[in-house]
Amino acid sequence: MTATSRLPVEGPLPALDGATAWLHSEPLTPAALRGRVAVLQFCTFSCINWLRTVPYVRAWAEKYRDVTVIGVHSPEFPFEHDEEAVRSALDGMGIRYPIAIDDDFALWRALDNAYWPALYFVDVDGRIRHRHVGEEGYERSERVIQYLLGESGVRDVDEGLVSVTPDGVHLAADWASLGTPETYTGYARATGFASPGGLRLDRRHVYARPDHLRPHTWALDGAWTVRARSTTLDEPGGRIVARFHARDLNLVVGAHDGTAARVRVRIDGEPPGVARGLDVDEQGDGHVAEPRLYQLVRQQRPISDRIVEITFLDAGVEAYVITFG
Protein backbone atom coordinates (compact mmCIF):
# COMPACT_ATOMS: atom_id res chain seq x y z
CA MET A 1 0.00 0.00 0.00
CA THR A 2 3.04 2.29 0.02
CA ALA A 3 2.22 3.95 -3.29
CA THR A 4 -1.44 4.29 -2.33
CA SER A 5 -0.54 5.97 0.96
CA ARG A 6 0.94 8.85 -0.96
CA LEU A 7 -2.35 9.76 -2.59
CA PRO A 8 -2.40 13.51 -3.11
CA VAL A 9 -5.27 15.82 -2.27
CA GLU A 10 -6.55 17.08 -5.61
CA GLY A 11 -9.17 19.47 -4.27
CA PRO A 12 -12.70 19.36 -2.89
CA LEU A 13 -15.60 17.53 -4.44
CA PRO A 14 -17.68 20.30 -6.07
CA ALA A 15 -21.39 20.76 -5.54
CA LEU A 16 -23.61 18.21 -7.24
CA ASP A 17 -26.60 20.52 -7.60
CA GLY A 18 -26.07 20.86 -11.35
CA ALA A 19 -27.63 17.44 -11.89
CA THR A 20 -30.97 17.73 -13.66
CA ALA A 21 -32.38 14.59 -11.98
CA TRP A 22 -31.38 11.63 -9.83
CA LEU A 23 -32.10 7.92 -10.23
CA HIS A 24 -32.17 5.49 -7.28
CA SER A 25 -31.58 8.30 -4.78
CA GLU A 26 -32.63 11.65 -3.48
CA PRO A 27 -30.26 14.41 -4.64
CA LEU A 28 -26.87 14.00 -2.97
CA THR A 29 -24.54 16.78 -1.85
CA PRO A 30 -20.91 16.89 -0.68
CA ALA A 31 -22.24 17.64 2.81
CA ALA A 32 -24.46 14.56 2.75
CA LEU A 33 -21.49 12.43 1.65
CA ARG A 34 -19.20 13.77 4.35
CA GLY A 35 -18.02 10.93 6.55
CA ARG A 36 -18.23 8.35 3.73
CA VAL A 37 -15.83 7.36 1.01
CA ALA A 38 -17.37 8.10 -2.39
CA VAL A 39 -16.59 6.97 -5.92
CA LEU A 40 -18.01 8.94 -8.87
CA GLN A 41 -17.93 7.63 -12.42
CA PHE A 42 -18.84 9.56 -15.56
CA CYS A 43 -20.77 7.42 -18.00
CA THR A 44 -23.07 7.45 -21.00
CA PHE A 45 -25.06 4.33 -21.71
CA SER A 46 -24.09 3.64 -25.33
CA CYS A 47 -20.32 3.99 -24.72
CA ILE A 48 -18.45 0.70 -25.17
CA ASN A 49 -15.53 1.92 -23.06
CA TRP A 50 -17.88 2.54 -20.12
CA LEU A 51 -19.86 -0.66 -20.70
CA ARG A 52 -16.70 -2.72 -20.25
CA THR A 53 -16.16 -1.20 -16.77
CA VAL A 54 -19.68 -1.90 -15.50
CA PRO A 55 -19.09 -5.33 -13.88
CA TYR A 56 -16.26 -3.95 -11.74
CA VAL A 57 -17.95 -0.76 -10.55
CA ARG A 58 -21.18 -2.64 -9.86
CA ALA A 59 -19.23 -5.23 -7.85
CA TRP A 60 -17.52 -2.50 -5.80
CA ALA A 61 -20.89 -0.95 -5.00
CA GLU A 62 -22.17 -4.33 -3.79
CA LYS A 63 -19.06 -5.26 -1.79
CA TYR A 64 -18.15 -2.01 -0.05
CA ARG A 65 -21.20 -0.99 1.97
CA ASP A 66 -19.26 1.89 3.54
CA VAL A 67 -18.70 3.44 0.10
CA THR A 68 -21.18 5.54 -1.88
CA VAL A 69 -20.84 4.83 -5.60
CA ILE A 70 -22.40 7.49 -7.85
CA GLY A 71 -22.77 7.32 -11.59
CA VAL A 72 -22.79 10.65 -13.41
CA HIS A 73 -24.62 10.20 -16.71
CA SER A 74 -23.43 12.90 -19.12
CA PRO A 75 -25.03 12.09 -22.49
CA GLU A 76 -22.90 11.92 -25.63
CA PHE A 77 -25.77 11.61 -28.12
CA PRO A 78 -29.24 13.23 -28.23
CA PHE A 79 -31.10 9.98 -27.47
CA GLU A 80 -29.16 9.68 -24.21
CA HIS A 81 -30.99 12.75 -22.89
CA ASP A 82 -34.13 10.61 -22.55
CA GLU A 83 -34.36 9.91 -18.80
CA GLU A 84 -36.54 6.84 -19.24
CA ALA A 85 -34.09 5.43 -21.79
CA VAL A 86 -31.25 5.99 -19.32
CA ARG A 87 -33.24 4.34 -16.51
CA SER A 88 -34.15 1.36 -18.68
CA ALA A 89 -30.59 0.85 -19.93
CA LEU A 90 -29.01 1.03 -16.47
CA ASP A 91 -31.68 -1.05 -14.79
CA GLY A 92 -31.13 -3.69 -17.45
CA MET A 93 -27.49 -3.90 -16.34
CA GLY A 94 -28.42 -4.34 -12.70
CA ILE A 95 -27.14 -0.90 -11.72
CA ARG A 96 -28.86 0.14 -8.50
CA TYR A 97 -26.49 2.76 -7.11
CA PRO A 98 -27.35 6.50 -7.35
CA ILE A 99 -27.17 8.10 -10.79
CA ALA A 100 -26.89 11.85 -11.27
CA ILE A 101 -28.39 12.87 -14.62
CA ASP A 102 -25.97 15.47 -15.97
CA ASP A 103 -27.85 16.55 -19.09
CA ASP A 104 -26.38 20.07 -18.97
CA PHE A 105 -22.82 18.83 -18.32
CA ALA A 106 -22.69 20.91 -15.15
CA LEU A 107 -20.92 18.19 -13.13
CA TRP A 108 -18.69 17.40 -16.10
CA ARG A 109 -17.49 21.02 -16.19
CA ALA A 110 -17.26 21.33 -12.41
CA LEU A 111 -14.76 18.46 -12.32
CA ASP A 112 -13.06 19.58 -15.54
CA ASN A 113 -13.74 16.13 -16.94
CA ALA A 114 -13.07 15.15 -20.54
CA TYR A 115 -13.67 11.39 -20.75
CA TRP A 116 -16.15 8.53 -20.70
CA PRO A 117 -15.50 6.69 -18.45
CA ALA A 118 -13.67 8.53 -15.68
CA LEU A 119 -13.51 7.61 -11.98
CA TYR A 120 -13.07 10.07 -9.09
CA PHE A 121 -12.26 8.78 -5.58
CA VAL A 122 -13.33 11.00 -2.66
CA ASP A 123 -12.31 10.62 0.98
CA VAL A 124 -14.52 11.08 4.07
CA ASP A 125 -13.54 14.77 4.24
CA GLY A 126 -14.92 15.41 0.76
CA ARG A 127 -11.52 15.65 -0.93
CA ILE A 128 -10.69 14.10 -4.29
CA ARG A 129 -7.71 11.81 -3.72
CA HIS A 130 -7.38 9.90 -6.97
CA ARG A 131 -8.81 9.72 -10.47
CA HIS A 132 -8.65 7.15 -13.24
CA VAL A 133 -9.49 7.79 -16.88
CA GLY A 134 -10.63 5.06 -19.26
CA GLU A 135 -10.81 1.33 -18.82
CA GLU A 136 -8.61 -1.17 -16.99
CA GLY A 137 -6.64 -0.29 -13.84
CA TYR A 138 -9.26 -2.16 -11.79
CA GLU A 139 -6.89 -3.53 -9.17
CA ARG A 140 -5.34 -0.13 -8.56
CA SER A 141 -8.79 1.48 -8.29
CA GLU A 142 -10.01 -1.10 -5.80
CA ARG A 143 -6.85 -0.71 -3.72
CA VAL A 144 -7.57 3.02 -3.55
CA ILE A 145 -11.07 2.27 -2.22
CA GLN A 146 -9.61 -0.04 0.40
CA TYR A 147 -6.98 2.49 1.43
CA LEU A 148 -9.50 5.32 1.82
CA LEU A 149 -11.71 3.07 3.93
CA GLY A 150 -8.81 2.12 6.15
CA GLU A 151 -7.72 5.74 6.41
CA SER A 152 -11.23 6.65 7.55
CA GLY A 153 -11.13 4.17 10.42
CA VAL A 154 -13.28 1.40 8.95
CA ARG A 155 -12.09 -1.84 10.50
CA ASP A 156 -11.58 -5.22 8.90
CA VAL A 157 -11.57 -3.97 5.32
CA ASP A 158 -11.58 -7.02 3.05
CA GLU A 159 -8.32 -6.71 1.11
CA GLY A 160 -9.34 -9.27 -1.47
CA LEU A 161 -10.32 -8.10 -4.94
CA VAL A 162 -13.79 -8.54 -6.40
CA SER A 163 -14.14 -11.54 -8.67
CA VAL A 164 -16.09 -10.80 -11.83
CA THR A 165 -16.55 -12.71 -15.07
CA PRO A 166 -17.54 -10.16 -17.72
CA ASP A 167 -19.36 -11.36 -20.81
CA GLY A 168 -21.33 -9.93 -23.70
CA VAL A 169 -20.64 -6.25 -24.32
CA HIS A 170 -18.98 -6.07 -20.89
CA LEU A 171 -16.09 -8.34 -21.90
CA ALA A 172 -12.77 -6.50 -22.04
CA ALA A 173 -11.43 -5.68 -25.47
CA ASP A 174 -8.91 -8.05 -27.01
CA TRP A 175 -6.23 -5.40 -26.76
CA ALA A 176 -3.54 -7.52 -28.44
CA SER A 177 -5.53 -7.72 -31.68
CA LEU A 178 -7.35 -4.39 -31.57
CA GLY A 179 -6.01 -2.41 -34.51
CA THR A 180 -8.91 -0.30 -35.78
CA PRO A 181 -9.91 2.87 -33.90
CA GLU A 182 -13.52 3.91 -33.42
CA THR A 183 -15.05 6.21 -35.99
CA TYR A 184 -18.08 8.45 -35.85
CA THR A 185 -20.42 8.45 -38.81
CA GLY A 186 -21.35 12.12 -38.47
CA TYR A 187 -19.12 14.50 -40.37
CA ALA A 188 -18.04 16.46 -37.29
CA ARG A 189 -15.82 13.58 -36.13
CA ALA A 190 -15.76 11.04 -38.95
CA THR A 191 -12.39 9.54 -39.92
CA GLY A 192 -11.36 6.99 -42.50
CA PHE A 193 -14.30 7.56 -44.87
CA ALA A 194 -13.67 5.93 -48.24
CA SER A 195 -16.74 6.32 -50.51
CA PRO A 196 -15.81 8.11 -53.77
CA GLY A 197 -16.40 11.85 -53.59
CA GLY A 198 -16.27 11.97 -49.80
CA LEU A 199 -19.06 13.00 -47.45
CA ARG A 200 -21.86 15.29 -48.66
CA LEU A 201 -22.99 17.36 -45.74
CA ASP A 202 -26.58 17.70 -44.54
CA ARG A 203 -28.25 16.46 -47.70
CA ARG A 204 -29.42 13.23 -49.23
CA HIS A 205 -26.82 11.60 -51.42
CA VAL A 206 -26.46 8.21 -53.08
CA TYR A 207 -23.08 6.82 -52.02
CA ALA A 208 -21.12 3.92 -53.48
CA ARG A 209 -18.57 1.67 -51.87
CA PRO A 210 -15.09 1.80 -53.39
CA ASP A 211 -13.67 -1.10 -55.37
CA HIS A 212 -11.06 -1.59 -52.65
CA LEU A 213 -11.16 -0.69 -48.97
CA ARG A 214 -7.87 0.10 -47.28
CA PRO A 215 -7.39 -1.16 -43.70
CA HIS A 216 -9.25 0.79 -41.02
CA THR A 217 -11.56 2.58 -43.47
CA TRP A 218 -15.30 2.51 -44.00
CA ALA A 219 -17.84 3.52 -46.63
CA LEU A 220 -21.52 4.07 -47.26
CA ASP A 221 -23.53 2.47 -50.04
CA GLY A 222 -27.02 3.66 -50.93
CA ALA A 223 -29.02 6.80 -50.13
CA TRP A 224 -27.94 8.45 -46.87
CA THR A 225 -28.03 11.87 -45.25
CA VAL A 226 -24.89 12.63 -43.28
CA ARG A 227 -25.26 15.18 -40.50
CA ALA A 228 -22.77 16.51 -37.98
CA ARG A 229 -23.36 13.82 -35.36
CA SER A 230 -25.14 10.99 -37.16
CA THR A 231 -26.02 9.47 -40.51
CA THR A 232 -29.56 8.52 -41.57
CA LEU A 233 -30.59 5.94 -44.19
CA ASP A 234 -33.11 7.43 -46.64
CA GLU A 235 -34.01 4.34 -48.66
CA PRO A 236 -34.10 0.60 -47.82
CA GLY A 237 -31.07 -1.47 -48.68
CA GLY A 238 -28.34 0.94 -47.67
CA ARG A 239 -25.06 -0.42 -46.32
CA ILE A 240 -22.22 0.51 -44.02
CA VAL A 241 -19.06 -1.29 -45.11
CA ALA A 242 -15.83 -1.38 -43.11
CA ARG A 243 -12.45 -3.08 -43.24
CA PHE A 244 -11.34 -3.65 -39.67
CA HIS A 245 -8.91 -5.55 -37.47
CA ALA A 246 -10.47 -6.44 -34.12
CA ARG A 247 -12.34 -9.22 -32.34
CA ASP A 248 -15.54 -7.18 -31.98
CA LEU A 249 -17.40 -4.68 -34.11
CA ASN A 250 -20.20 -2.64 -32.53
CA LEU A 251 -22.49 0.00 -33.97
CA VAL A 252 -24.40 2.63 -32.04
CA VAL A 253 -27.58 2.89 -34.08
CA GLY A 254 -31.34 3.23 -33.71
CA ALA A 255 -34.44 2.97 -35.84
CA HIS A 256 -36.87 5.82 -36.46
CA ASP A 257 -39.31 6.13 -33.54
CA GLY A 258 -37.86 2.93 -32.09
CA THR A 259 -39.75 0.72 -34.55
CA ALA A 260 -37.73 -2.36 -35.52
CA ALA A 261 -35.66 -2.18 -38.68
CA ARG A 262 -34.15 -5.31 -40.17
CA VAL A 263 -30.36 -5.61 -40.38
CA ARG A 264 -28.17 -8.16 -42.13
CA VAL A 265 -24.46 -8.67 -41.47
CA ARG A 266 -21.94 -10.31 -43.79
CA ILE A 267 -18.24 -10.90 -43.06
CA ASP A 268 -16.09 -11.20 -46.18
CA GLY A 269 -19.31 -11.79 -48.08
CA GLU A 270 -20.53 -14.67 -45.92
CA PRO A 271 -22.93 -15.05 -42.98
CA PRO A 272 -20.98 -14.62 -39.73
CA GLY A 273 -21.71 -18.04 -38.23
CA VAL A 274 -19.80 -18.36 -34.95
CA ALA A 275 -18.42 -14.83 -35.48
CA ARG A 276 -21.87 -13.34 -34.95
CA GLY A 277 -22.36 -10.63 -32.35
CA LEU A 278 -25.01 -10.70 -29.66
CA ASP A 279 -27.53 -8.80 -31.76
CA VAL A 280 -27.60 -10.98 -34.88
CA ASP A 281 -27.98 -14.69 -35.46
CA GLU A 282 -25.56 -17.05 -37.23
CA GLN A 283 -27.07 -16.04 -40.56
CA GLY A 284 -26.30 -12.42 -39.72
CA ASP A 285 -29.94 -11.39 -39.38
CA GLY A 286 -31.26 -9.16 -36.61
CA HIS A 287 -33.27 -6.06 -35.80
CA VAL A 288 -32.41 -2.52 -34.76
CA ALA A 289 -34.96 -0.70 -32.62
CA GLU A 290 -34.23 1.67 -29.73
CA PRO A 291 -30.95 3.58 -30.13
CA ARG A 292 -28.11 1.86 -28.27
CA LEU A 293 -24.91 -0.05 -28.89
CA TYR A 294 -25.48 -3.18 -31.00
CA GLN A 295 -22.78 -5.85 -31.07
CA LEU A 296 -22.68 -7.18 -34.62
CA VAL A 297 -19.41 -9.14 -34.78
CA ARG A 298 -17.49 -11.16 -32.19
CA GLN A 299 -15.00 -13.37 -34.01
CA GLN A 300 -12.73 -16.13 -32.81
CA ARG A 301 -8.94 -16.15 -32.95
CA PRO A 302 -6.90 -15.82 -35.03
CA ILE A 303 -7.91 -12.22 -35.73
CA SER A 304 -7.19 -10.85 -39.19
CA ASP A 305 -8.40 -8.02 -41.40
CA ARG A 306 -12.04 -8.59 -42.28
CA ILE A 307 -14.60 -6.69 -44.36
CA VAL A 308 -18.02 -6.35 -42.78
CA GLU A 309 -21.15 -5.31 -44.68
CA ILE A 310 -24.05 -4.07 -42.56
CA THR A 311 -27.19 -3.87 -44.68
CA PHE A 312 -30.36 -2.22 -43.41
CA LEU A 313 -33.44 -3.60 -45.13
CA ASP A 314 -35.64 -0.77 -43.84
CA ALA A 315 -35.11 2.99 -44.13
CA GLY A 316 -34.91 5.43 -41.24
CA VAL A 317 -32.07 3.98 -39.20
CA GLU A 318 -29.71 6.52 -37.68
CA ALA A 319 -26.08 5.51 -37.10
CA TYR A 320 -23.73 7.32 -34.72
CA VAL A 321 -20.42 5.55 -34.18
CA ILE A 322 -18.62 2.30 -35.05
CA THR A 323 -16.53 0.87 -32.21
CA PHE A 324 -14.26 -2.13 -31.86
CA GLY A 325 -12.98 -4.41 -29.15
TrEMBL record:
Pfam families: Redoxin (PF08534), Thioredoxin_10 (PF17991). It comes from the Bacteria. PROSITE patterns: THIOREDOXIN_2. Residues 1-150 form the Thioredoxin domain. InterPro entries: Redoxin, Thioredoxin-like_sf, Thioredoxin_10, Thioredoxin_domain. SUPFAM superfamilies: Thioredoxin-like (SSF52833). This is Thioredoxin domain-containing protein. It comes from Actinomycetospora straminea.
